[in-house]
Amino acid sequence: MDLSYRIAVRYFFSRNKRSFISLIARIAMAGVAVGTMAMIVVLSVFNGMEDLNRKIFKTFDADVKISPREGKRFQVSDSLISIIKSVNGVKSVTQVIEDNALARYGSQQMIVRLKGVDEGFEQQGQLDTALVQGSLKLYGPNGTPYAVIAEGIRNALSISLEDVIVPLELLYPRTGTKTLNVTSAEAFNHITLRPGGIFFIEARYDDYVIAPLSLVSTLMEYGSQRSALEIKTIPGFSEYKISRAIGEKLGENFVVKDRDSLNSDLLRAIRLEKLFVSVTLSLIILVAAINIFFSLSMLAIEKKKDVSMLYALGAGPALIRRIFLAEGAIVALSGAIFGLCGGIAICLLQIRYGFVSMGMTTSLIDAYPVKLMWQDILYTGVIVVIITMIVSYIPARRAADAGQILRV
């Protein structure tokens, strides 16, 4: 072991006889430990929240989505589908028509977000984990069309899957309704379906009705036009790279986005909050580590004679500085190690047992999500090292200067 560290370790353990200096050192260790623990836990929670949102997006949103750059619809042809499927990594393409519509069930009605999908939607199994009642079928054995509705719509319209008499009615304004009386039934196209399944993800998706594409196309008079194409990718392929490749093939008339790009605002907000929390907790650790400064300053005063003796034995200012820097490192790193171990233990317990609940029940998770990442542990360790060097340098330099003065 280096001489400076041997002396620093001896000072660290021997000064426990000095109650006041020992108290300050222990406060410094406790402050660093608590700050470090808090940083590990909070950053892990932000990682978990980001992962949770990605799971939510994956439950409903497509891996890659193609939409028109201008307008609400575009023409879909077999050649366009072939171009998309030629991209390496594309598993399937689902044609989508999506717009607002009026839903009516019995005497209740409300505006919903109607999403028409083709038969490929059932094979994707996106809503399997979010289904709370019924099934994801779009057609029954006898060709009866079914709708999959959100929990929020079921509650608002008092829909019962067991009621085989009352249908779900969907209405959409006919083309050229400006010349018609909007209160007249002739102003709206109209279709009826049977509610076949209920899903629940979160409030963001609580106004969706998913119905067969052919019926929605007739209702909205889209013909062979579509509002979007949703692509399911082969596992292991990068969604971002696939979206880039499709965008290059389709040209500037289309907007092609992967799932993260579709939800970039929310993900960016989570990362920004994580950054601000990291800076805030770093400042808290810095404030807690100020006690190291006071502890080393008092230790330098107490050890003046020892420093003078070391100078007399041939020690230089660099050795004296290293001794006190090592002393500060021992105090800070002791607290950091306890904090890291405590933070990791808390995160692992939350992952395993979910002690802290989110206070609400969802189909995906009921406890606060936590995800440990080695980058956060490394970042926290680097922050503690930098703060330790900052708060230890001035007392170490003063101790070296004071020893030189005493020697003279």
Tags for this model:
two-stranded antiparallel ribbon, 408 residues, 2 domains, elongated, alpha+beta
Question: What would you note in describing this structure?
Answer:
The chain is an alpha+beta fold. The chain has two domains: 3-57 and 266-407, no CATH class; 62-258, no CATH class. It has helices at 3-14, 19-60, 78-85, 120-124, 151-157, 213-220, 239-250, 259-262, 264-302, 304-312, 317-353, 374-407, and strands at 64-68, 74-75, 90-105, 108-117, 131-134, 146-150, 168-173, 188-199, 208-212, 225-226, 228-233, 254-258. The strands form two sheets. A six-stranded mixed β-barrel has the order 3-4-9-6-8-7. A two-stranded antiparallel sheet has the order 2-10. The longest helix has 42 residues, at 19-60. It is elongated. The two termini are 30 Å apart. InterPro entries: ABC3_permease_C (IPR003838), Lipoprotein-release_system (IPR051447), MacB_PCD (IPR025857).
Topology, please?
Layout: H1 3-14, H2 19-60, E1 64-68, E2 74-75, H3 78-85, E3 90-105, E4 108-117, H4 120-124, E5 131-134, E6 146-150, H5 151-157, E7 168-173, E8 188-199, E9 208-212, H6 213-220, E10 225-226, E11 228-233, H7 239-250, E12 254-258, H8 259-262, H9 264-302, H10 304-312, H11 317-353, H12 374-407
Parallel strand pairs: 4-9, 6-8
Antiparallel strand pairs: 1-11, 1-12, 2-10, 3-4, 3-7, 3-11, 5-8, 6-9, 7-8
